[in-house]
Design a protein that fits this description.
This protein has 485 residues and is mainly β. It is built from two helices and 32 strands.
Length: 485
């Protein structure tokens, strides 16, 4: 054989050896791969970060043994409200070719729809003998009801039980993320799935117990978790983000509805808190399980002997300043009850408090706790004050009356000048003296001409007085103000 022919044969052999592996890889990728289901019990690690606005970040790591080549993977037990476009799959030596979120779940209705154009069996029961008989039928339609062909007849009512020969492959018993992948080698792999989902919410709730002197309180903070995502999260590392994270508006998508929720308080253990960009991140120091269709409570904080102060506030309106009141010109005012304290380390707090409802209790003379009011608090960083309105006082009353009114000048549309005299009578039916703040909302440019007690100008249109009201007595505040509009 000539040297040229030998060279040509060597080149051809090399080409064939190079083409064959490529050919077989292409065959593997295009052939239908056997599905490997990754169940929740294969989880090696699970962590959840829940945001305020119905959003959660799930990180799910599972271990599975894979063959080399093309493989279909099915992540079972994921959230039914996953945002599929946010799913991120990470694993060494694996290339993802496709990913599909399948939420067409098995139900009598969905099963019947999959059998349109296919044959089923109708099982009838003789009411006299109880004997069963089987009749073949074909499902023609399921639009606004079932249409069957039984023999030569078209039936719109199912005359018995329907028996299906098998379960369609494209129906799932739970929401599943399906992946078509290619594995470079065989063996055990760690597969990390990260995604955003709706259906997980959290909120903060606080319980404050006021002491008998009403100058200190014990505070407990709870995080209430609500899981309507369609999945359970077992032994998960839990983190919460407090703050308003911006989200792009999305069209409404299919949601899943569930039954009422069960409440499951968890053991008392404070969460750790840290800054995350311009938000606050709270971490539970142990794994926890959040079941599907469950409301769960975990401890956020516990603080004892937090100094506080009770205030009575009477807030007047902005009327009586630019017009004369008819009748006797008197209006009854209510005294609001406020509880104030500072979020500082010196007060045994100092932790950034997420927004929530704070409920206040106080023991009666028998030691039984009684509910005395609640208020919603906003996100409160360290060294900020918290002010709760608990309700209106029963024993503190006030009357506000216009005692004089004059229009000094004015023509449309500006340069109106008015003078008004106001009398506010505050009565105290308690057995002890109280201090009451009175606030008046005065419009325009104003000058205080005369007053029985000195005021403080809190803002451009707000004047404030502090009145000492004796037990079983009253205090009268009188002032005259000039208003220019």
């Amino acid at each position: 054989m000539s040297n040229n022919k030998k060279t040509d044969l060597k080149i051809m052999a090399r080409l064939i050896s190079a083409i064959i592996p490529i050919f077989f890889m292409a065959v593997c990728q295009t052939a239908e791969a056997a599905e490997i289901v990754l169940q929740p019990d294969q989880q090696k690690e699970l962590s959840i970060t829940i945001y305020n606005n119905d959003l959660a970040l799930v990180r799910d790591i599972r271990t599975v043994q894979l063959p080399k080549g093309s493989v279909a993977l099915a992540f079972a037990g994921i959230s039914g409200q996953i945002r599929p476009e946010t799913a991120l799959f990470q694993a060494d030596g694996i290339n993802i070719l496709e990913q599909n979120f399948e939420f067409d779940l098995l139900s009598p209705d969905s099963l019947l729809k999959k059998y349109v154009g296919r044959d089923v069996e109708i099982i009838k029961v003789n009411p006299a003998t109880g004997k069963e008989s089987i009749v073949p039928a074909r499902v023609l339609s399921t639009n606004s009801g079932v249409v069957l062909k039984i023999g030569n007849r078209i039936e719109t009512t199912i005359p018995g039980r329907i028996s299906f020969p098998d379960l369609p492959q494209n129906l799932r018993t739970e929401p599943t993320l399906c992946l078509l992948a290619y594995s470079n080698t065989s063996g055990y792999r760690e597969m990390k799935l990260t995604y955003l989902t709706s259906g997980l919410k959290w909120k903060a709730d606080y319980i404050a117990q006021l002491n008998s002197e009403e100058n200190a309180l014990d505070l407990k903070g709870w995080v209430t978790l609500e899981n309507r995502s369609g999945a359970a999260y077992r032994d998960a590392r839990l983190q919460l983000v407090a703050g308003e994270v911006n989200r792009v508006s999305r069209p409404k998508t299919r949601t899943m509805r569930y039954k009422s929720l069960a409440v499951a308080p968890d053991s008392m253990e404070n969460m750790t808190q840290e800054s995350l960009m311009d938000y606050h991140l709270y971490t539970l120091g142990r794994p926890t399980t959040i079941k599907n269709r469950q409301t769960k409570q975990v401890s956020l904080l516990k603080a004892s002997s937090v100094p506080c102060k009770k205030e009575y506030l009477i807030s007047g309106g902005s009327g009586f300043y630019t017009s004369r009141m008819g009748g006797n010109g008197a209006v009854k005012l209510k005294a609001g009850i406020f509880l104030c304290f500072s979020n500082t380390k010196e007060n045994n707090l100092g932790m950034a408090l997420p927004a929530g409802v704070m409920r206040v209790y106080k023991a009666d003379t028998t030691g039984t706790l009684q509910f005395v009011g609640e208020d919603r608090v906003d996100h409160t960083p360290e060294k900020e004050d918290i002010r709760l309105k608990l309700g209106n006082a029963f024993d503190i009353t006030a009357w506000r009356k216009q005692t004089d009114f004059r229009k000094l000048a004015g023509s449309a549309p500006y340069n109106y000048i008015y003078e008004t005299s106001i009398r506010i009578t505050v009565k105290n039916a308690k057995e002890k003296d109280v201090t009451v703040k009175v606030q008046e909302h005065i419009p325009g440019d104003w000058i205080m001409l005369k007053e029985s007690n000195p005021h403080k100008k809190v803002s451009a249109r707000l004047a404030e007085w502090e009145l000492n009201v004796p037990a079983k007595g009253e205090t009268v505040l009188e002032y005259r103000v000039q208003v220019r509009l």
